[in-house]
């Protein structure tokens, strides 16, 4: 897992130094003017020896590389900063997965539940290894399949073991997730401080049994636990029931309500790729803090690279390579 991910939004500690970028267009204009003066028939023999006519592309290549090097060097001189994602040291994430019968719909290949399992396992690799992960499943009832643990192999095995059942009790899934969070081991350095926690809840349906999901979301809010909901599936999903098609369209309204009440965020996914991207976004939200850091060395490295390229071009001209 990459420890730090750069967000492409630049700032500068010394923005006044960016005025030096005016040198770039000045140099470009000067080069164009000189190039126009060095047309065939007007060049001196000395110039011909230094800049042979058969290698104009080498001159242009070297100049472009030199100008780019200068531009990158000026940006580095202005001390650029960017938002970066820094892994949090400790937290507990509960992955709550709907295992109701509607999850066997094939509108997401091969089935909703199989695609959900694969994506959830991928999610485990996206969050910091120091995080505790718990697995909760819910259909007509809810259960803690795996209490909080840093054992990713055990978490994957717990996900793979999930089996479908009747009905959908989203509220019960949330309450069991809160129970799982209470099982998180204390921080050895700060045993009295509760670990930050979050719930990632994936469902394709609406509550039809058990306690209200709105009340459960309010309980999560009271404990400072945001719920990131994923409405998973398409409007055209169906399952076969007694030889007949039974539509099981994804329910977005309840997922949005849960996220809004708890202080989390609601996502939608209609394909495996959508779900992978959603889990990636959630991993950044729950696993990383966004901080500002100076990235001068990155632009200095770019300037050095273009300087080397420009130098190679100049050597090529001096050597009069064909």
Q: What would you note in describing this structure?
A:
This protein is α/β, with parallel strands linked by helices and 322 residues long. The protein is elongated. α1 packs antiparallel against α3 and α4 runs antiparallel to α5. Mean pLDDT is 85; it is low at 1-8. It has 10 helices and 11 strands. β6, α7 (213-222) and β7 form a beta-alpha-beta unit. The chain has a 6-stranded mixed β-sheet, with helices on both faces. Strands 1-2-11 form a 3-stranded antiparallel β-sheet. It starts with a strand and ends with a helix.
Gap between N and C termini: 47 Å
Strand order of the largest sheet: 5-4-3-6-7-10
**What's the number of helices?**
10
Strand content: 15-25%
Oligomeric state = single chain
The assigned structural class equals alpha/beta
Mean pLDDT rating: 85
Biggest sheet layout = 6 strands, mixed
Radius of gyration: 29 Å
Show unreliable segments: 1-8
List the helices and strands and how they pair.
Elements: E1 5-12, H1 23-37, H2 45-50, H3 56-77, E2 80-87, E3 92-98, H4 112-126, E4 132-138, E5 142-149, H5 152-160, H6 170-182, E6 197-203, H7 213-222, E7 227-232, E8 238-241, E9 244-247, H8 252-262, E10 265-269, H9 272-287, E11 288-294, H10 296-319
Parallel strand pairs: 3-4, 3-6, 6-7, 7-10
Antiparallel strand pairs: 1-2, 2-11, 4-5, 8-9
Helix pairs in contact: 1-3, 3-10, 4-5, 4-9, 6-7, 7-8
């Amino acid at each position: 897992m990459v420890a730090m991910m750069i967000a492409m939004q630049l700032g500068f500690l010394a923005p006044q130094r960016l005025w030096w970028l005016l040198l770039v267009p000045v140099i470009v204009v000067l080069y164009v003017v000189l190039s126009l003066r060095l047309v065939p028939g007007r060049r001196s023999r000395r110039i011909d020896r230094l800049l042979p006519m058969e290698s104009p592309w080498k001159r242009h290549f070297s100049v472009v590389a030199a100008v780019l090097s200068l531009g990158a060097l000026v940006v580095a001189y202005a001390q650029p900063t960017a938002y970066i994602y820094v892994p949090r040291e400790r937290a507990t994430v509960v992955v709550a997965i709907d295992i109701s019968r509607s999850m066997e719909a094939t509108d997401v290949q091969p089935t909703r539940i199989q695609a959900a399992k694969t994506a959830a396992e991928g999610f485990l690799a996206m969050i910091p290894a120091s995080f505790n992960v718990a697995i909760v499943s819910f259909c007509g009832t809810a259960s803690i399949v795996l209490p909080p643990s840093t054992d990713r192999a055990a978490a994957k095995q717990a996900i793979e073991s999930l089996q479908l059942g009747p009905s959908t009790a989203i509220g019960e899934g949330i309450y069991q997730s809160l129970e799982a969070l209470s099982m998180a081991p204390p921080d050895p350095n700060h045993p009295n401080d509760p670990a930050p926690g979050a719930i990632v809840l994936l469902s394709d349906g609406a509550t039809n049994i058990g306690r209200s999901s709105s009340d459960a979301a309010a309980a999560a809010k009271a404990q400072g636990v945001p719920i990131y909901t994923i409405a998973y599936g398409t409007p055209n999903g169906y399952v076969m029931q007694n030889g007949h098609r039974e539509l099981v369209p994804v329910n977005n309204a309840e997922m949005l309500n849960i996220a809004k009440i708890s202080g989390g965020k609601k996502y939608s996914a209609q394909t495996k790729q959508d779900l992978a991207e959603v889990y990636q976004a959630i991993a950044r939200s729950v696993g990383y803090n966004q901080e500002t850091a100076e990235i001068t060395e990155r632009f200095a490295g770019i300037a050095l690279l273009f300087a080397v390229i420009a130098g190679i071009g100049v050597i090529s001209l001096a050597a009069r390579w064909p």
